[in-house]
């Protein structure tokens, strides 16, 4: 039993740490004179427009759908909404005690609730449950995180941000619908449900593109780690990271385990709830004038802390 667990950790966690470490090394010593910011932006664009649509289509077009297509995104909604509510009680109500303005509160609310489903979630689930487990993370991302990101996340940032920008639900809904992964998800869903025959080269191309998602995103996680940002208000940053890494998965576990028992789907829901802060939250922060330094610090601490909480979750769940 112990040897199987250690082997699972070695196969599931060690490669993630190695890829993130390589990204961090790249940040410290950029090869070829390439700017880290430009490199990260280029990789993110490739993932958004090519790699992630590839894995979304590849996995969804051949997935065998069950109730997990409902329960997994629902668990994301539950955990995120409660985490943001808890963050409001911890950071917004006693704001004077923390010594932060509204943009700092907004950064903490978003950082403690939106998880890195895309890069970390897919990598962890594929490592622990096999390649087809990527479908869980895709359900959680497209039907859970993405919808809340462009509605609740954008609305929170608009209200608490320093920049005077109004939030229009229709505008952000249109932005969501224009996202290539959403179109790829819908295309794969139609091909699957309607049994539409597709040339073999389409599936092969999508599969090849999808294989690049995990290493690309993990490298950008490493490139984003800046330990300098952690020095600001460490207690506040640790509190936000604890909500994201500990409270959120514990809450989801308290709800789903009594209802469904210990199954692969419940294990997935708990693991996804405990992902570190989503990197794309920085985009909202910069667009609406939140405190990006605080948000980046939580992202760094939660990402580093994840490699302590992940083995613990694996021990308890698997």
UniProtKB/TrEMBL annotation:
Keyword Transmembrane: yes
Record keywords, A-Z: Cell membrane, Membrane, Transmembrane, Transmembrane helix, Transport
Membrane topology, as annotated: Multi-pass membrane protein
Membrane-traversing stretches: 6-26, 70-91, 98-124, 136-161, 182-202, 208-225, 237-260, 266-284, 296-317
InterPro entries on file: Mem_transp_PIN-like, Na+/solute_symporter_sf
Domain of life: Bacteria
A Pfam family annotated for this UniProt entry: Mem_trans
Keyword Cell cycle: no
CC per GO annotation: plasma membrane
GO biological process, one term: transmembrane transport
Localization in the cell: Cell membrane
Chief location bin: membrane
PANTHER family assigned to the protein according to its UniProt record, in alphabetical order: AUXIN EFFLUX CARRIER FAMILY PROTEIN, SLR1864 PROTEIN
Family: Belongs to the auxin efflux carrier (TC 2.A.69) family.
Protein name, as recorded: Transporter
Annotated organism of origin: Rugosibacter aromaticivorans
Taxonomic lineage of the native organism: Bacteria, Pseudomonadati, Pseudomonadota, Betaproteobacteria, Nitrosomonadales
């Amino acid at each position: 039993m112990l040897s199987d667990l250690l082997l699972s950790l070695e196969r599931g966690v060690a490669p993630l740490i190695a890829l993130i470490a390589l990204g961090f090394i790249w940040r410290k010593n950029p090869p070829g004179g390439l700017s880290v910011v430009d490199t990260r932006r280029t990789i993110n664009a490739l993932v958004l427009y090519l790699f992630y649509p590839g894995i979304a289509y590849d996995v969804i077009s051949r997935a065998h759908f069950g109730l997990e297509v409902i329960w997994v995104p629902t668990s994301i909604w539950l955990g995120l909404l409660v985490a943001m509510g808890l963050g409001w009680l911890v950071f917004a109500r006693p704001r004077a005690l923390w010594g932060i303005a509204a943009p700092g509160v907004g950064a903490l609310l978003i950082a403690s609730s939106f998880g890195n489903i895309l890069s970390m979630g897919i990598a962890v689930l594929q490592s622990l449950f096999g390649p087809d487990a990527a479908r869980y993370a895709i359900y959680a991302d497209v039907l859970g995180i993405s919808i809340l990101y462009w509605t609740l996340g954008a609305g929170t940032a608009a209200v608490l941000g320093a920049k005077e920008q109004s939030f229009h639900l229709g505008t952000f809904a249109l932005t969501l619908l224009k996202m290539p992964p959403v179109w790829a998800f819908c295309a794969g869903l139609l091909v699957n449900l309607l049994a539409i025959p597709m040339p073999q080269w389409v599936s092969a191309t999508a599969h090849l593109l999808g294989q690049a998602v995990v290493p690309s995103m993990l490298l950008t996680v490493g490139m984003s780690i800046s330990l300098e940002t952690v020095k600001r208000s460490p207690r506040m940053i640790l509190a936000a990271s604890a909500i994201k890494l500990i409270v959120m998965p514990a809450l989801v576990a308290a709800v789903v385990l009594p209802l469904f028992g210990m199954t692969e789907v419940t294990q997935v829901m708990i693991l996804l709830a405990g992902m570190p802060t989503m990197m794309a939250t920085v985009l909202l922060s910069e667009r609406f004038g939140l405190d990006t330094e605080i948000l980046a610090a939580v992202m760094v601490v939660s990402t580093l802390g994840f490699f302590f909480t992940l083995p613990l979750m694996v021990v308890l769940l698997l």
